[in-house]
Every structure is written in C-alpha cells, then in structure tokens.
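From: lab user (bench 3)
To: helpdesk
Subject: output format question, protein + adenosine-5'-diphosphate

Hello, I'm new to running complex predictions and I'm not sure whether the block I got back is the full result or only part of it. Here's what I submitted:
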Amino acid sequence: MDPGKCPTGCDRIYATRRLVKIIFATLGNSFDKKTRYETVFGEDLSTRERTFRAPGRVNLIGEHTDYNDGFVMPAAINFSTFVSISQPFDSKLDIFSENFKDSVSVDLTAGPRPRGDWSDYVVGVAVILQAAGYTVRGAKLNIRGEVPIGSGLSSSAAIEVATACALVAISDIKIDRVELAKLCRRAENEFVGARVGIMDQFVSLYGQAKKALLLDCRSLDYELLPLSQEAHLVVCNTMVKHELASSEYNQRREQCEAGVKHLAQALPHITALRDVTLEQLEAYGKDLADVIYRRCRHVITENDRVLKAGDALKRHDLGEFGWLMYESHRSLRDDYEVSCPELDIMVELASRVEGVYGARMTGGGFGGCTVNVVANEHVEEFKRAIAAVYEQKTKLKPEIFVCETADGAGEVTSVPAIQQQAGD
Ligand code: ADP
Ligand code: MG
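Helpdesk reply: Thanks, we reran it on our side. This is the complete output you should expect:
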C-alpha cells in the first residue's frame, strides 16, 4: 500500500467523521472525545489516529530579557493543547479546531498563505517545516485546546508545538527538539506575524513536571531546577490589555539597542545587554539619557535575578525566590515601565495574603497576568481574597488559574475532557 494514501474508503470515513465531529463540537464540550468515538464509530476507528499534547507555560522570572540575549525561567503547566492526526493520505491539511468550532482546508503543494485567523498557527508550522526542507504529508487534524486562549499562558506555542509534533511524527521527519522549537517560533514570527522570542516553544517542548526551566536565550543551554511541591503557581489575569503594548514593546527593544550602542564605545566586546554588568553600566552609562539608563538597569538586574532565582531553587529557598519575584516586579514597574495600575494592584493585593511567597507581572506587560507562588494550604484563601478585593478595586472580575507544573510535549493515548479553566 502506498504509505501516502489511506486505505480504500478512508476518505469517505473521514468525511463522515469530520461531519459528526463538527456536529458534536457545536453541541459544546459536554461529550469527551472517547464518548464520541465509542458511541459513533466504535473503538477500532480511533486507533487510526495519533494524538500529541503540548503544554502552555508561565514565566516565573526573567521578563524582557529574551531579546537581550539573557535568561528566562518559565515552567510548563498542566493546561495543554491536543492535536489528533490521521494517517497521512494526500497533500491536504484538513484542520478542525474544537475551540473555534471551525474548519480550514489547505493544499500544502499550493503554497498556503496566512489567512489572518487561528489556522495560521497550524498551517504556519507546516509551511515553515517545508521551507526548512522537510517533506510534510497531508492529514486530518483535530485540535482541542485547554490552555486559556489569549490569557498569557501561551496557547499559541501549545498549538504550534502540538501541531509540529503531530506533523513530524506522521511524516517520518527526523528532527531534534531544539530545531523544532526554532521552527515553531519562526512560524509565529513569519507566518502569523507575531514578534515573539523562543521561550514559549522551548519550554513547551523541554518543560518537566515539578521543575522550572532556566533558559539561556543566547546559547539555548538550559537547566531544569526543582520547584518545591509545597507551593502552587497561581496565575491571575487582570483582564486588561492596553492597546499600547506592541508599540511600547518595539520602543523598549530600540531603547535596549541604543543602550548597547552607547556602552559598546567603552566595551567593544558587547553585543547585547546580556554582556554588561551593573558595575559597567554605572561606570560607562553616566552619559546615557535617564530613560535608557533605567531600561538597561532593568535588563541587567533582571538577568542577575534569574540566576539568583535558579540558585534559590537549588537550595529549596522559596522565600528568597519570592523576594526576587517582588524585586522583578518593582524593576519592571519603575525602570522598564511596562506595568499598569491593574497589575500593580494585583501584586500588591497578593503580597498581603498569607502564604504568598512572591508575586509579579508576567508576560510583556501593560495588562495580562501576574504569577504568584502560594503555599498549598493558602491557595483557596488566596483565590477568594484576590477575586473579591481585585473586583472591588477595579470593577473587573479576574480569571485565576491554579497551575501544576507539567511535562513537555509528547504523544498521548487519550484526550481528557476539557478541565475547568478559570477561577470557579
Ligand atoms: P496566548 O498565547 O497568550 O494564549 P496569543 O494571542 O499569542 O495568546 O495566541 C492565541 C491565538 O492562538 C488564538 O487567537 C488562536 O488564533 C490561536 N490558538 C490557540 N489555541 C487554539 C486552539 N485550540 N484552536 C485554534 N486556535 C488556537
Ligand atoms: Mg502567545
């Protein structure tokens, strides 16, 4: 049998399955995948499919350091995206997103272009794999995401990485995980058109349960560090996203570049702020405009905090780790000026709740989420206190996600029903 084709009749079976899937998806998530397949097709048909899972992430410390060749420390979390993929059978990708209840079909031989919707994240991965010289086979893909979309937990990297793992597996492509992370990032940069670093894709592939991942964004060397099981990572969504985020982001990048250019006059070996110490900034940055000086100081001290946070985890010292998180927030607020009143309120409120080791804004800023390290026995009280007081102060109802750390992407044997996502 031609391995590129499905057995006889497969097309019709898949068309029927697709139709039934769409009908069931529109009925909502009350049917889990197993129930659908067992009820509608019987067990044997689902064995034709393989399913790949990739997790979302939260960045614990190391903000705005990635594009300065510095250090970040994310953890993969137990909200994942699942991509179920059929046997390869022609040059088309037929993609269905259960979340968007929408399907898109593209011919890989026709040079697909971005459509400006959710499917770009999936098609982009296939197109970039092809551009890198790999032969990608056509197939049916069913996507089920439990990573909250657009909440800062990187549903985008999760869908890219799960898709990449699925396509690579059915196309018999041999590729290592670093390369896969780079290609997924390229898909988001070049096909989706979002200027992102490599952290999200990298941790979605390399994360581990009970571990934080310390990543050197220059060399891509990484270290998995033990996260105490006495505390949970709790993510609070402020529910604001200020419009200036992307223009301010570009401006911060330019300011960092300006800082490097100036400092390189005295320090010709440097190519990024990663290469500069605080002492060097103090010695050679006197002529810098105050705003550029403060931007540089954030990046330099933040890199230092990430490394210290790594040492704290090795010593199982959550107290020190939490203190570094508060310091990171202060620096992002005062020196880098990427916080906003809602983020500051959320961090301030957290700092007053018993059992909170540390809190800070996470992500690019100007809204989005905070990450909090909360002692297990205080998580429920934390959720209650934050939800009530934040809403009272801002008139906004926050989403609160209590996260477990999780393993990086891989193949799974079943897809769980979508779990409760937001603060219940
Ligand atoms: P975040 O990564 O913080 O969740 P982004 O805006 O970077 O937010 O990425 C969200 C986008 O990724 C969605 O708007 C959608 O286009 C795509 N996406 C994520 N998960 C899915 C999914 N399960 N199905 C379809 N598209 C998805
Ligand atoms: Mg994203």
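A quick orientation on your result: Residues 81, 97, 99-100, 118, 121, 143, 145, 149-156, 159 surround adenosine-5'-diphosphate (ligand 1) (CB under 6 Å). Let us know if anything else is unclear.
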